[in-house]
Amino acid sequence: MFFYYLMPVIFLLGIIGIALEDVIKVNKAATAVGMCILLWLIFLLNADHFFLINPPKHISEFLAMFPQLGEMPLHELAFEFLELKLVRGLGDVATTLFFVLGSMAIIDIVDSHGGFSVISQSIKARSLRKLLCVLCSITFLMSILLGNLATVIVMVSIARKLVPERTSRLVFSSMIVIASNAGGSCSPIGDVTTLLLWTGGNVSALHQVTTLLLPSVAMLAVPLALATFMLPREAAVAPLSSATSAQTEVSPKTRKAVLWVGLGSLAMVPVLQTLIQLPPFMGVLLGLVILWVITDRKYADSSDEAMQNLRVQKSLSRVDISTIFFFLGILMSVQALIVTGQLAIMANFLSDTFVDKNHIAIVLGVLSSFLDNVALVSATMGMYPLQEAGVFAADSSFWTLLAFCAVTGGSLLIIGSAAGVTVMGMEKIPFGYYLKRFSPLALFGFVAGVIVYMLFV
């Protein structure tokens, strides 16, 4: 029993280690993968024991699939069970990883071609308050198509050029975090957590967008209205700096073509999944292949090294692989807890504690401000399997509210989301600065979003 109860302790310590990445000076990807290996190793070394104390449904389902294994010795049966669950879990996780990898590559291709300059050059605002509203609105919309993490990288880069003065730019950067998480919460590809819920069948794309759009707007509108008073009325907006040498050589026609193909391919992912049941990761890879063909044909005969760097194979070398390893570690760790029955125990505890299951989603949203929301949502999906009807049916209020709370709850603290951590690193935003000035604003927005959701559902 010691090792059985040691597993959730290791998981909790791993999540804390991820949250304190800057304190312990260990990359969160290393912590996540190490945690994953340790959990599965404990399962491997104690497979016989875990197999016996697992909830009966796991054993009965397993033997129903492979009745010929019923006569095997216990230790061999346990290893067969472990192998099946490990391979199946890895297969499920791989679909998410390839989606993230493909979308990151597409965004890098568009950015390296200067595609986002088409958007930045269209910004005509001259007062800081108006510029804040414009940038946050663009961030909100882009997060729906590109995801919150990619969006904050682009928008903070634009804010740097338009707002050189650091004090004002910290306001812009902090609000970009809130806007990106607000927009990402109402899109099936807006955040890794919403992607998990969508690909897992918990929430459909159309339902998520139509149901969460108004709460997401409320989540942004309340903090944005208050944040405008942090900026002076009169201030000069700096002109955008020039593009890189490679981007300068890219024709405007090519730049726009890459931009619209990239954005269009991401936007078509939920459409293709709805119409022809094409898996999301294949939809993203289809868009990547189209860009691959375009760039290969465009630069195949060019001897310019700068132009060769615009091809897809170069973009793939620039993708942050540590992020892929981080998601691998987190998601496979959760799989280990599912298989060993740990999450079933937690689900029973939460169900007994909260009569209204929507309260569970709200609590998890608050927890996501300092615990990794990918792990929380993945664990929640493991705790509450989909039902044909009832509280945990697809598109139910519980799963929809969880999609909103898990993403927007990450705005309560600067370390609560991947977008926040990224901006924190890019702009060197002090934890205390965000906590004092923007955590209350994010909390007001979070409460406003939940109230709007409750009123309209």
Integer average pLDDT:
82
What share of the residues lie within helices? over 70%
Low-confidence region ranges? none
Distance from first to last alpha carbon? 44 Å
What is the β-strand count?
0
General shape:
globular
> H/E order of the elements?
HHHHHHHHHHHHHHHHHHHHHHHHH
Q: Strand fraction band? A: under 5%
- Structural class of the helices, strands and pairings? mainly alpha
Can you tell me about this structure?
There is one protein chain. This protein is mostly helical and 457 residues long. The chain has a domain at 99-320. Helices cover 76% and strands 0% of the residues. The protein has 25 helices and no strands. The protein has helices at residues 2-19, 21-24, 28-45, 47-53, 56-65, 74-112, 117-120, 128-146, 148-162, 166-185, 192-199, 205-227, 245-249, 252-276, 280-299, 305-308, 312-318, 321-339, 342-353, 357-367, 373-383, 397-408, 418-427, 431-437, 439-456. α11 runs parallel beside α21. The model has no long low-confidence stretch (mean pLDDT 82).
